[in-house]
Give the backbone structure.
Amino acid sequence: MDISVVIPLLNEEESLQELHDWIAKVMQSNRYLYEIIFIDDGSTDTSWKVIEELSEKNKEVKGIRFQKNYGKSQALDAGFEIAKGSVVITMDADLQDNPEEIPELYDLITKDNFDLISGWKKKRYDNVISKNIPSKLFNAAARKTSGLKLHDFNCGLKAYKNEVVKTVKVSGEMHRYIPVLAKNEGFTKIGEKVVQHQARKYGETKFGMDRFINGFLDLITISFLSKFGKRPMHFFGLLGSLMFLFGISLAFYIGVFKLYKVYHNIKTILVTDNPWFYIALTSMILGTLLFLAGFIGELIIKTKSDEKHYSIKEKVNL
């Protein structure tokens, strides 16, 4: 199979038929072998009914319906698991991503041998204050932190080699950082393509300002995980050891200084009246806790199994 198109969605009943017809037209005109995988992330409208109807008319349409709304990352992860195409394309269901971009994205992966191509919506039709400006700030921070020179990390239109989506595990709210996750897994040929952005035709956006706050928090998380995710002891253990060493050295100094004064009959305060004693004690306790955190982190990494963080309610054509 040439292409798998993975489409996460939430309450997009009005756009699904039009999106399907558009994708099918592009695929058939280019004679691709394809599948369209809709992931219904707990919609409360008739989105799933539309997907079922589409699957009856077109055997290339597949669908997964979540028991409830789990989030875009979990929806993408479910789609990636079943995708069979040598190239996997992701796009949003709101018709703001243009299916006409698919052939060029496919060629960049198959002919130019890119591991991942991220779309760049250079010209946007979103609200400037609520989305464009925060998006620019977010992307600038992501570029600085990750080292990837991408302009639009959050663009839903992306293309991947199949082995990339089978390797990268997307959880939490990490869908924004799939290029970073791919880079951390050794897929270094990551590129960018300017894609057409279209104004929303139906309904309203499902994302508010809070996604940018969450995005920055996730950026801190991914930056930490990229450096210490596989070896938490390198961070917690080192910091804990330094704090414990500082505390015990300070306690040793306090004890020796106290004995020196007692030996020479010099008036001195009790050790427990010395504020530095409590600083030393706190440093030793925190150092021990940090060391244990690193050790427990290492045990978790070595013993954890792959877990699914979503519950599937229904499937079609699977």
Notes: The beta strands are 3-9, 34-40, 61-66, 87-90, 116-120, 158-161, 190-194, 312-316. The first strand starts at residue 3 and ends at 9.
